[in-house]
TrEMBL record:
Residues that, per the record, bind Mg(2+): 32, 51
Organism: Elysia crispata (lettuce slug)
GO molecular function (one): GTPase activity
Protein name, entry field: Uncharacterized protein
Chain residues that bind GTP: 25-32, 74
Superkingdom: Eukaryota
InterPro entries with a match to the protein in the record: P-loop_NTPase (IPR027417), Small_GTPase_ARF/SAR (IPR006689)
Record keywords, A-Z: GTP-binding, Magnesium, Metal-binding, Nucleotide-binding
Length: 184
């Protein structure tokens, strides 16, 4: 009984069903640029305007996996809740501008709140730190130390990117896809 209901439907873990990803971080951290790099290629991007609300686009990975990416404006704040349901991965962008930059206390609290959201309980997190190589390493270590207890038991990873090249964008997508494949 019930097998007739499933005929012709695609399971949520099949390759034809796109995985929902949130692309979040502070304003001007590079979220939209990363999304456009995945979708159109870095060579076609002339300029990127700051996102006012959100962008949604479906991308297809090299292995033909479809991912529905919600690029949320940096100041989304309390309006984040409607986007959480059904999220299967989070990419959190952090921009480090100057040597010696660190994660500000308010960003640390925002990250912790996001990690602890009940709708994201078993959701993998990929932190992408871009900017000065020396500062990025420091922020990566700082992030790991500050969030260790909050991230315990979760699937997560940190990547440091020096610039925006197609290779860097593709690498982020490969790591994300690998994380998602462990989950499904």
């Amino acid at each position: 009984m019930g097998t007739g209901c499933s005929t012709g439907l695609s399971a949520p873990w099949s390759n034809s069903y796109p995985l929902k990803i949130l692309l979040v971080g502070k304003q001007s951290s590079g979220k939209t640029f990363l999304l456009y790099s995945w979708k159109y290629g870095i060579d076609t991007i002339m300029s990127v305007e700051p996102t006012k609300h959100f962008n949604v686009d479906t991308i297809t990975t090299a292995s033909e996996r479809k991912i529905l990416v919600y690029d949320l404006a940096g100041n989304i704040g309390y309006r984040l809740r409607p986007f959480l349901d059904g999220t299967e991965g989070v990419v959190y962008m952090i921009h480090v501008g100057e040597p010696g930059d660190s994660i500000f206390k308010e960003e640390e609290e925002s990250i912790k709140q996001l990690i602890l959201e009940r709708d994201l309980e078993s959701t993998p997190f990929l932190f992408v730190i871009r900017g000065d190589p020396e500062s990025s390493k420091g922020v990566s270590q700082d992030l790991t130390e500050r969030l260790q207890a909050t991230l315990e038991g979760k699937q997560w990873d940190i990547m440091c990117l020096q610039d925006y090249s197609q290779e860097d964008a593709d690498l982020v997508l490969q790591v994300l896809e690998k994380m998602l494949s462990r989950r499904t």
